Structure formats: C-alpha cells, structure tokens
Amino acid sequence: MIRGICFTIVFLLTVICSIVSGQTLDKIQLKNGDLLFEDLDCGPLCDAIEQVTQSYGGNHFSHIGLVYIKADSVFIIEAIGAKVQLTPLERFTGRTTHKIYIGRPKISQQVIDKALTFSVSKLGVEYDDVFLYNNEKYYCSELIYDAFKYANHNKPFFKLEPMTFKRPGSNEFFPVWIDYYKDLGTEIPEGKLGINPGGISRSNKIEILNP
C-alpha cells in the first residue's frame, strides 16, 4: 500500500530521509507551537499536488509539523509514514535540501499549549492515507487543523477547502491519483473538504518568521 506525506499529499518518506542531507534551524528561534513547512521531493504525487495547491512565497510545501520543546530537546509532532509521531528536529530537517519555513500562530501561548496537548494525545494514531477529514486518522495538515480547532474552543482556526485531484483547467484526474486510490481500493475524494500545508502557510493567522 502506498503511504505518504500529506494531502497535499504524500508518498514515501523513509527513502527520502536516507538519501538527502538537511539543514540547520536556529533552535533558539523556535518556540513551542511553531509550524514548520517542508517541500519534500516525493515524486509524481508531490508534482501533482504542487500543480493544484499554492504555498507562501511561491513555494511548494508538501508537509507540515508542530514544534514541541521538551527540556532542551526540540521535537516535531507530525503525521507521517504510518502514524502520528514525535520526530527529533534533526531528523525532520534532514529530509529535504529545500529551505524550511517557520510559521508562528498569532494566538496566545495558552491556546498554543492546548494545541500541543491535543497533538501529543494523538501520538500513535494511524496515518490518514485516504485524506478524508474526521475519520479518526490524520494526515499532516489535518492534525494541525484539529489541534488548533480544539485549542480555539472547538472553533476552526484554519480553513477547510474542497480538495481536487484533477489537472488544472480540465475534468481529468491526474493518472498518479487514479493509481493511488485504486491501490487503496477506494474512490478519489474529489470535492471533499480538506486542508494542506500550502493553505496553512498562506493563512493570516500565522506569521512567517524567515521569509
């Protein structure tokens, strides 16, 4: 079964982790609750994603994680691979050669702490490789959406939008998505509500710290 990155979606990551070198982020700059945006080169799926989503500054973000600082160690809470997991910062940054962008939510630390508590409680939850909202599984940006919704008195902080898996300007699905969902044995969730890292990166609810 193909597993992957994000709705904006996703593909294999363990392979990418092993073959690319990463970058160093200033740990002093990072705070609990910061959002890290990654451009992961995951092949045809990411190529299809990039054609139908927009990211901050013309970038092509395909993954997002949440900064979680414990003692002197920096981790990233993320939905990736098989489940929601806690990843050391160095491993997270080592997946890509592209610049990683830092987004800081424009809300109180109390709300951010609640979002972190929610996210920690979801560690081990299965990865949502179908990209269907509210099915008790999580893809990367879906986890972020629900965490901040929970922290915001159950009111949406970020915005869900209809997803598309079709070529821009046509009514034809990208072949890679046809094969992907055929392997999963389910229909393509065209038009269903979802969220992606690019959309979050363009939200006026966050500030990009390293433009």
From TrEMBL:
Protein name: Permuted papain-like amidase enzyme, YaeF/YiiX, C92 family
Superkingdom to which the source organism belongs: Bacteria
InterPro entries: Papain-like_cys_pep_sf, Peptidase_C92
Alphabetized Pfam families for the sequence: Peptidase_C92
